Amino acid sequence: MGDEADMRSQAIELRDVHRRFASGGAAVAALDGVTLALPRGTFTAVMGPSGSGKSTLLHCAAGLDRPTSGSVRLGETELTALSERRLTLLRRERVGFVFQAFNLLPSLTAAQNTALPLRLARRRVPRARVLEALREVGLADRAGHRPSQLSGGQQQRVALARALITRPEVLFADEPTGALDSRTGHQILTLLRTLVDTGSTTIVMVTHDPTAASYADRVVFLVDGRVHGELSGGSAREIAGRMAGWETKAPSKTTRLSEATPC
Ligand SMILES: Nc1ncnc2c1ncn2[C@@H]1O[C@H](COP(=O)(O)OP(=O)(O)OP(=O)(O)O)[C@@H](O)[C@H]1O
After folding, report:
1. What is the CATH number assigned to the segment(s) 36-105+168-245?
2. Taking CB atoms and a 6 Å cutoff, what residues make up the pocket around ligand 1?
C-alpha cells in the first residue's frame, strides 16, 4: 500500500536508466544506471560537469529520447513501452519544455506562439486561456508583440506561457536562464518557483549555475552519467562547493565500442 501510494505521488520515476551513444569508434555511456524519483509539485535542479549526462537525462525523462535500457515513468505511464506516435502525443499533452534558446516563431505574436501547442494538437484555442497563460508569466499586455519586439526575458516568458498552455504534468527546463542577464534570469527563476509553490506544477531544470539551482527544492548531482548525491534546500554557495571538486575532473566514461554493450 505504502509503495503504491509512493508510486502515485511521483511525477517522474527513472529506474536503472542507461543511455549509450556510438561516437566514432567509441561508445559513450551518457547515462550509466540512473535511478531517480521526482515527487509531484517539486522543483528539482540537475547539475554536473559538462558532459555528465544532464541533457540526456532530461531528454530521456521527457520522452524526447529513448534509454538504451531501464524504465522511465511519467505518472503511471511507462514511456519506454510507447510507440513513437503515442510518445509524440504524450510530449504534446503531458509535458512542457523551455530551452536556453527561446525557440519562438519570429513571424507569430506572443499570443500566437503561446497557442501553438494547442493548435498542433488540433485543440480549441480559447483566447481567454491564451491570455491567462500570458498573464501568468506577467505578459498580458504584450500579447500582440512579435519576438523581435520583446526583450530576452520577455521572450523566455512567452516560451514559458507556451509550455504551460497545455497544463503539463511536468515542465522540463534546459538552461532556461543561460541566455539571460542575472537580473532577468532571477525574474524567470522566481516565476518558476512561484509556479511550483502556487500550483501543482513539477519542474525539472538542468543548469550549470549554482544560483539558479538554489531556487529548486532539491539539487541532484550527476557525474559521468551517474547520480552522485543530492542537496535539499542548499544555498548557491553550498551548491557551488559541491560542484567545485567535480568541475575539474576529466571525463572517464568513453570506452572502446568493443568493450561496451551494443547501443
Ligand atoms: N547524440 C549523441 N551522440 C553521441 N554522443 C552524445 C550524443 N548526445 C550526447 N552525447 C554524449 O553523451 C555525454 C553526455 O552528454 P550531455 O549532453 O547529456 O551532457 P551535459 O551534462 O548535458 O553536458 P553540457 O553541460 O556540456 O551541456 C557526452 O559525452 C556527449 O558527448
Report:
1. 3.40.50.300
2. 21, 23, 28, 30, 48, 50-56
